[in-house]
Design a protein that fits this description.
The protein is 31% helix and 17% strand. It is of the alpha/beta class and 552 residues long. It has 2 domains: 6-158 and 393-547, 3-Layer(bba) Sandwich (FAD/NAD(P)-binding domain); 167-234 and 256-383, no CATH class. Bound molecules: NADP nicotinamide-adenine-dinucleotide phosphate.
Length: 552
């Protein structure tokens, strides 16, 4: 058996702290996992968090316009009825600052911060088979020896700054939206270049345009967007949330995407064109992600999807006054919602402003960043600030940037060399007692995140409770269970139009060299919840559960 305590995992100084469990991350996932393990199971447990506070993705993504696309009454913890009574959202969609207030409120309410160590980035985690313990090392040189390791590192937490030649020579300032300065950025009087038109760029552009001298949006792939129609919540709606919190929770557990709304049963292709248009118009006016729930066949039939796509493209052409700009914005090459569909507040309207220009960098690609701006094959743009809204090394990136090694010292990067392989997105073969909250292979990013997170954290803590009750010390998935699950993940994706967006981050296509594998489970959260419950009910079917080794 290999001694897996390699150089990178060797304690730098002092003794290793011993705990039952360690949670990596203190966002929505890590906070709740900590609470489950500490307060319900009574484990000695700590969370290590790279940021200076709780919040995870919301701690880092402080870019202008950062706001959740899920409606506030479905974007919170639902494990404690009193929490749902005590907290009150102010807007239809919670903004970044309000979500941070909420997460701090929860952390204080349950006294979580005393067991969270901030400003602590985990660099490695190595499994020692002889002791059945994980040795976890941090950037600060601390080490922890733990039996259970839970990663709650988020799916979108590794910023992807494209490798454009010349960035180091740029004399202005540049920022990635996912690592935004806490003190904010003053755009007034500045010529700003925004690269990227995903959900983030689409949220940021209208807000940056309000104060910048000039905003140039560099668009590579045109994108759909539907108005969010954000607004303050009325007293009546706030009362509705309080009176119906339990029902709202149940609804989020029963839907495919963990939202409070159901996908309609009607089919776009069986609805007369005039009526279909009215339905789309009503969904457009209502706004939000619910647009994609207008018809049942929207995500399974390209022909049905085309009707939604055409409706949105027509809206873009109606909103944007300059026909050339409208043509570039509406020249969309993938089905609607095959990439994560953005929602916006006046995104397309922003291109009617005098101080906003759209540049098509698909037609004329970016060549370099210069000292004073950005050069495409068609010309140079003078810029004072560049904002990269260029996304993330999603799902696998946050895991792989840690040096995680399982049995025989095998690196996770080796096991995932051709793409992530997991059982239920909860465990990886050869990595005993390591659990991943919303890992690849689980619904995760295709689901309203707090709903996916609560189910995972509860399943993991129930599993650990089962192990303790039954004298089981070690759990890992059987190879055939992993193979079978990966096949189910692939089949679920293939039954939808999602793989048709060949350049999406769901497939890892946004990061050069990353394997192209559809990462999240697209079979729906409700179905997935049932599968996980069945697995547990059948004695953790598909997992190998081993008792403690009898000392020789
Ligand atoms: P993204 O969806 O990956 O979009 C990145 C954008 O940058 C794309 O338009 C991409 O173009 C462009 N890009 C990347 N590299 C480029 C390059 N070298 N040159 C030119 N353009 C380049 O990232 P995101 O907008 O940050 O969103 C990521 C995810 O975060 C979302 O899908 C969503 O799940 C989540 N999110 C949620 C919210 C919310 O709930 N409010 C808000 C923001 C983000 P291509 O398409 O051509 O690659």
């Amino acid at each position: 058996m290999a001694d897996v305590t390699t150089d990178t995992a060797r304690p730098a100084s002092g003794d290793s702290q011993e705990l039952d469990a360690l949670v990596i991350g203190a966002g929505f996932g890590g906070m709740y996992q900590l609470l489950c393990l500490r307060d319900r199971l009574g484990l000695s447990v700590k969370a290590l968090e790279a940021g200076g506070g709780v919040g995870g993705t919301w701690y880092w993504n402080r870019y202008p316009g950062a706001r959740c696309d899920t409606e506030s009454h479905a974007y919170w913890y639902t494990f404690a009825p009193e929490l749902m009574r005590e907290w009150e959202w102010s807007e239809r969609y919670p903004g970044q600052a309000e979500i941070m207030r909420y997460l701090n409120f929860v952390a204080d309410r349950f006294d979580l911060k005393r067991d969270i160590q901030f400003n602590t980035r985990v660099t490695s985690a190595h499994y020692n088979e002889a002791t059945n313990r994980w040795l976890v090392c941090t950037e600060n040189g601390e080490t922890y020896t733990v039996k259970f390791l839970v990663t709650a590192v988020g799916c979108l937490s590794t910023a992807n700054v494209p490798n454009i030649p010349g960035l180091a020579d740029f004399k202005g300032d540049w920022y990635h939206t996912g690592e935004w300065p806490h003190e904010g950025v003053d755009f007034s009087g500045k010529r700003v270049g925004l690269i990227g038109t995903g959900s983030t760029g689409i949220q940021a552009a209208p807000v940056i345009a309000e104060t910048a001298k000039h905003l140039t949006v560099f668009q590579r792939t045109a994108n759909y967007s539907v108005p969010a129609r954000n607004a303050p919540l009325t007293d009546e709606f706030k009362r509705y949330i309080k009176d119906n919190a339990a029902e709202i929770r149940t609804a989020t557990h029963e839907t495919a995407n963990g939202h409070q709304f159901k996908i309609e049963d009607r089919l776009a292709l069986q609805t007369p064109a005039e009526e279909r248009e009215k339905i789309y118009q009503a969904a457009w006016e209502r706004g939000g992600l619910q647009f994609r729930a207008a018809f049942h066949d929207m995500m399974s039939s390209k022909e049905a999807n085309d009707t939604a796509a055409e409706f949105i493209k027509n809206k873009i052409r109606q909103i944007v006054k300059d026909p050339k700009t409208a043509a570039i914005l509406s020249d969309i090459d993938h089905p609607y919602a095959a990439k994560r569909p953005p929602i916006d507040s006046d995104y397309f309207e922003t291109f009617n402003r005098d101080n906003v220009t759209l540049v098509d960098v698909k037609a004329a690609p970016i060549q370099a960043i210069t000292q004073t701006g950005l050069r495409t094959t068609e010309g140079e743009y003078e810029l004072d600030i560049i904002v990269f809204a260029t996304g993330f090394d999603a799902m696998t990136g946050p895991m792989l940037r840690m040096d995680i090694r399982g049995t025989n010292g095998t690196p996770l990067s080796e096991v995932w060399a051709a793409g992530p392989v997991t059982y239920l997105g909860l465990q990886v073969g050869g990595f005993p007692n390591l659990f991943t909250v919303t890992g690849p292979g689980s619904p995760s990013v295709l689901c309203n995140m707090p709903v996916a997170i609560e189910q995972h954290a509860e399943w993991i803590s129930d599993c650990i409770a089962h192990m303790r009750t039954n004298g089981i010390d070690r759990i890992e998935p059987r190879p055939e269970a992993v193979t079978n699950w990966v096949q189910q993940v692939n089949e679920a994706a293939a039954a939808t139009l999602l793989p048709m967006a060949t350049h999406s981050w769901y497939l890892g296509a946004n990061v050069p060299g990353k394997p192209r594998v559809f990462m999240p489970y697209a079979g729906g959260m409700a179905r997935y919840r049932g599968i996980c419950a069945d697995v547990a009910a059948h004695g953790y079917e598909g997992f190998v559960l081993s008792p403690a080794k009898v000392p020789a």
